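On clarity, I found the account of how folds are encoded harder to follow than it need be. What matters is that the chain and its backbone geometry are given together, residue for residue. For the editor and my fellow referees, an illustration may be useful. For illustration, here is how one protein appears when written out as sequence plus structure tokens:

___
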Amino acid sequence: MLGVALFAPAFTPSAASAQSLWSGSYTQNIFADRKAHDVGDILTIIISETTTTSAAKSSSNSKSGSVNLNAGVGLFTFLEAASAGGSDSFKATGAASDTNKVSGNITVTVTEVEPNGNMVVEGTQSIWQNKNEHKITFRGVCRQDDVTANNTIPSNKIADATVRFDGKGPLNAKQRQGILTQIFNILF
């Protein structure tokens, strides 16, 4: 009978290393607070802004004058008695009122954490509808303490806030004045 040789695989001992599925600093306790606090974290700004301005102005000005000339004497006997008078009056009133209301949500990213712990946040949201783009850009500074447990913050808690609404596309182009109208507005 032929001999059957059994081969056992040779294992060489090597150092095993454990690696996490999660990168670096993201590993957190399940009971930890998930509020934004570091660069790269995201949070949602709840925009609810209302501004109202009004102004009323009134001014008036008037003046009047009269001149009387008597009949001439001596060499000026040819002058007849005459009188002239005039008056000028100006009155103007005006009023202006403006109310703006903006509401919505935008998710932003923490771009910087200042030495005092305040977070600089910035984000842009683009919405396309029928070949028209509506773009919201938000930038501001907020305190970490003002971020709620569900990782949102009201816009009235943002310092140095800038909210910009832009649009482009066929509909937005039709809402602008034409070039000739703009030139006439500059000239007149």
User: Anything to note?
Assistant: Strands lie at 42-69, 82-113, 119-129, 132-142, 152-154, 159-168. The CA atoms of residues 132 and 172 lie 7 Å apart. The chain has one domain: 35-187.
